[in-house]
Amino acid sequence: MPDSAPAPIQSGESLLFLTDEQLRKGIEAMFFAYRGFTADPDRILEQYGYGRAHHRAMHFIHRVPGTTVNNLLSILGVTKQSLNRVLRTLIEDGLVQSKVGNRDKRERHLCLTEAGAALEQQLSDAQRARMRKAFRAAGPEAVAGFRQVLEAMMEPEMLAHYNRLKDGG
Amino acid sequence: MPDSAPAPIQSGESLLFLTDEQLRKGIEAMFFAYRGFTADPDRILEQYGYGRAHHRAMHFIHRVPGTTVNNLLSILGVTKQSLNRVLRTLIEDGLVQSKVGNRDKRERHLCLTEAGAALEQQLSDAQRARMRKAFRAAGPEAVAGFRQVLEAMMEPEMLAHYNRLKDGG
DNA sequence: CTTGGAAAGTCAACAACGCTGACGTAAAAT
DNA sequence: ATTTTACGTCAGCGTTGTTGACTTTCCAAG
Fold it and tell me: A167, B66, B134, B153 — which has fewest CB within 10 A?
């Protein structure tokens, strides 16, 4: 073997050889898959005159019932003006309820109404259906890998939110 | 074991038991990870006054040099008006070159200029760095699973584009 | 040669959803 | 009592998506 040959691939888990081609493929997979990920909810939202931002807000209000605006702001990573616009329409339309806090009356605690919970379920049913199909097609080991890579890709602050949600907080 | 207990989990690969919790975790992982996925390029693009749409256009022009506008349209899944606006600024700024086709002079063939290739590389270097870090942290088996799930999540038309790119067409 | 239609470009208008900055109110914290 | 925090809101702007209409160019079929 001539010493001008490329470095051999290490099969160990610490020294992982990754070509630009492999990384590019991963990048394009993320791009194309995210489109599929949002496609089904987008179609439903369109019928109600809502957008992705409304879905995201409803999702996390459902996940953390009674959460405050500031907490939601931190999870979603947008400005309060941007969130407020979305939140206002959801409250006006009777999908979200905003209650003044007991301990701290500056805070607003957000909950889904019955109608809001119904739409949220319709949206998440559609999104879960696609995720279930993908998980079933790929198998349990692939699912574990999928999550490992995604978690390693998150910004630390977002990973913290993700883990907090995982534990049901 | 009382018969009121939940159905046992099947360990086979065809009968895969998936709880809503597992699916939700996958959904939230996609949401948070995609933010990380775009974070680094977004920071760079901001300095040049460009957005994600410019990045996407440059990425696929780099991947398929000489591609036509229509092909790019199909890959990106946007309207020609939306793409044209982005493309026009890139051409004006000397990052993309548009050449009239030889065989069919209606077609425009798109290529990156030297300056365009330089910015594209800066962007994809940043994006690859994060992907590499995530891949290394998760390990080769996780990477395989990551791609399997993402591919199973794509819309058929996008999967076709993805595979076409994979083979270098 | 004429004509139909495809490919591309352009203009106008609009919507969703990010952003900044500024201002106001209420309440908690110091 | 003053400052800070949480929230809402107004105004304005930018990117990026949309539809609709119109023109030009040009290949290809009649």
Answer: A167
ipTM: 0.90
Annotated domain spans of chain A = 20-138
Q: Is B135 on the interface with A (CB under 8 A)?
A: yes
What is the arrangement of strands in the sheet containing A67-68, beginning at the earlier edge strand? Answer: A67-68, A108-112, A96-100
For chain A, positions 66-125, list CB contacts with chain B under 8 A: 77, 124
For residue B23, give the nearest of A138, A124, A158 by alpha carbon. A124
Any idea how long chain A is?
Answer: 169
pTM for this model (two decimals): 0.90
Report whether A140 contacts B16 (CB < 8 A). yes
Find all residues with CB under 8 Å of A128, minimum gap 6, and list them.
Answer: B20, B23, B24, B27
Nucleotide at minimal C1' distance from the A89 CA? C16
- For the segment A110-138, what is each residue's pLDDT rounded down to a tens digit? 999 999 999 999 999 999 999 999 999 99
Quick check: A102 CB within 7 A of strand C?
no
Residues paired with A110 in a beta bridge? A67, A98
CA distance A138 to A142: 6
> Quick check: A147 contacting B, CB < 8 Å?
yes
Q: Note the maximum CA span of chain B.
A: 76
Selected for mutation to probe chain B from A13, A25, A146, A163 (highest B CB count within 10 Å) is A146
Instruction: Give residue-wise pLDDT tens across range B90-103.
Output: 999 999 999 988 88
